[in-house]
Write a structure and sequence with these properties.
Elements lengths: L8 H20 L8 E2 L2 E2 L1 H13 L16 H11 L5 H5 L5 H11 L2 H12 L5 E4 L19 E5 L2 E12 L6 E8 L2 E8 L5 E7 L10 E12 L10 H35 L3 E2 L2 E2 L4 H29 L5 H26 L10 H11 L6 H21 L1
Parallel strand pairs: 3-6
Antiparallel strand pairs: 1-2, 4-5, 5-9, 6-7, 8-9, 10-11
Helix pairs in contact: 1-3, 3-7, 5-6, 5-7, 7-8, 7-9, 7-10, 8-9, 9-10, 9-11
Length: 395
């Protein structure tokens, strides 16, 4: 971690972002062709090699300052956008999901003892983490509607016993710690667990469209997991409240990272269009191609502005639930258009693994589902619009 604690915020974020961009472009991009990557993400030894390099440059976990405080959301937007210039960048710098969101939540809610045991190794990049909330659709468990949670936690003396199944748990395979959400008598409750644990069994790792996250996305069975009272995160029954503390910023940091990826995809597509010739002229001189790249620039700028606006709302101290929903919808849809056009501009080359454009396209498609699909956020926003209108009419 670089110590920019005394640097004015705007300059601090810009300076950090400049260092991160140089590191990603010069040191991380060459690893994009490393064979230690598979359908379930990069291997842990590849991740650790890149993190050792980031640590040597004092850029590991750059969003967390030496005193344990975080950059502002506005500063984080600059840094994570630079990290996202390569799909491997967030992993190398230790700002990838789900670890980045889990660090944020632990920093806000965990006790000092819990921070020492669970947060410190995460910040130092020594372990990966997982967030166990979503449940299998075939069980009719919690997904976009967390109130449908079936996983239970019952008290047994000084311990809690947890049983249930979880699905789409990113990074569960190989994680060193996890946050498990279960339904107790008091309501939804979060528990901190050290991994691996024999009571948490991976049934299978799913084959998914995206492949950028170590460990992939797993279906997990939890059978008689015993967790001491001291490992409840915060207070029993406050799990949904803590989920909102985590999810609003996490939606935004997803946007930040993938904005960087799409900026890079646009660079690659543009370089292709100004070199490739067809029908007697450069591709970019054909309106059909040039206009797609122009539309990409518009979408990228609008995504950037939405991110900056939402970051400002969160930095003001507001919860930003509605703002993060709007931003997640607008940015994920805009970036998918960008990625799609980049593939189209590059034709057959855009469909291959010769560049990262094809990978960015797949990852952005998955991003439209991460942290709630577009339609769920629109439904939530429509409910807010209705409630606000009814409140005004009742006055």
């Amino acid at each position: 971690m670089n110590d920019f604690s005394t640097t004015p915020n705007l300059d601090r974020g810009r300076r950090l972002a400049e260092l991160v961009e140089i590191f990603v472009r010069e040191h991380v991009v060459p690893f994009e062709r490393d064979p230690r990557q598979g359908p379930h993400g990069p291997s842990d030894d590849l991740v650790q090699q890149m993190r050792d390099m980031a640590r040597a440059e004092r850029l590991l976990t750059p969003n967390v300052l030496p005193d344990g405080s975080h950059l502002t959301h506005g500063e984080t937007a600059l840094v994570l956008r630079a990290a996202g210039l390569s799909p491997l960048g967030p992993l190398a710098l230790n700002v990838a999901a789900p670890d980045e969101g889990n660090m944020y939540l632990l920093g806000r809610v965990a006790s000092p003892a819990q921070k020492d045991r669970f947060l410190t190794p995460l910040i130092e990049g020594r372990v990966r983490s997982a967030f166990f909330m979503t449940e299998p659709a075939e069980d009719n468990g919690a997904g976009s509607d967390p109130s449908m949670m079936l996983t239970t936690a019952r008290r047994d003396g000084d311990f809690w016993v947890i049983d249930g199944r979880k699905a789409f748990i990113t990074g569960a395979d190989g994680a060193g710690m996890g946050i498990v959400m279960a339904r107790s008598e008091q309501g939804a409750t979060m528990f901190l667990v050290a991994l691996p644990d024999p009571a948490i069994r991976i049934e299978r790792v799913l084959d998914t469209l995206d492949d950028s996250m170590p460990g992939g996305h797993a279906i997990v069975r939890i059978d008689g997991l015993r967790v001491p009272e001291s490992q409840i995160l915060g207070a029993s029954g406050e799990g949904f409240k803590y989920a909102q503390i985590r999810l609003a910023p996490a939606r935004l940091t997803h946007c930040m990272r993938w904005l960087g990826a799409c900026i890079r995809a646009q660079e690659i597509a543009t370089a292709y269009a100004v070199k490739r010739r067809a029908f007697g002229q450069l591709l970019i001189e054909h309106e059909g191609v040039g206009f797609m790249l122009a539309e990409n620039q518009i979408d990228l700028k609008q995504a950037e502005l939405m991110i900056d606006w939402c970051a400002g709302v969160l930095d003001s101290g507001a919860k930003g639930i509605g703002e993060s929903s709007m931003t997640k919808v607008a940015v994920s849809e805009a970036l998918f258009r960008v990625a799609d056009r980049c593939v189209q501009v590059m034709g057959g080359t855009g469909l291959t693994g010769d560049t990262i454009v094809e990978k960015v396209f797949r990852e952005i498609r998955a991003f439209r589902v991460y942290d709630g699909p577009t339609e769920v956020h629109k439904w939530s926003l429509a409910n807010r619009i209705r409630n606000n209108a009814l409140d005004r009419m009742a006055r």
